[in-house]
Amino acid sequence: MRDNLLKLKVQFERNVSFFFQSGKQFTKKEIDISAFSADKRELEYAIELKYPRNGQYPEQMFIFCKDIIYAEELAAAGFHSAGLVIFADDHLYYQGSAKGIYGFFRDRQPLHGRIQKPTGRKDDEVILRGTYLIPWKPIAGSLRFTVVEVGQ
Fold it and tell me: Which one, of 73, 68, 69, 60, lies nearest residue 117 by Cα?
């Protein structure tokens, strides 16, 4: 596996237009971490990173859903694997009430289908193609992480 990774370029904050024609529409413009062959024939990994620091729990959870949509788009466009890595040191991201959007992140309820924006005008929604579980794993103290992976 390590020999395989040595053949890949790893870049941070790479614009999607570097990989795909401008006619393709994506939710976001940049990929936080991308790994690909020098000739761009092999698009291995596209990773989005999140580490929310200012509360806004339901709103941030909805943004996580948008990032999963983006990972789905990147995988459908040609990345072998795409995903989202979330770090959280505030327990309210992974513990508490399981009502509404919270259940996906606090109670391991399957995340899929139509997810409505939980705050404000509630006129925004996302539709996830896949089904995902959000299993939080401890790192140290209150810091936890989860990985949501999307394959082709």
Answer: 60
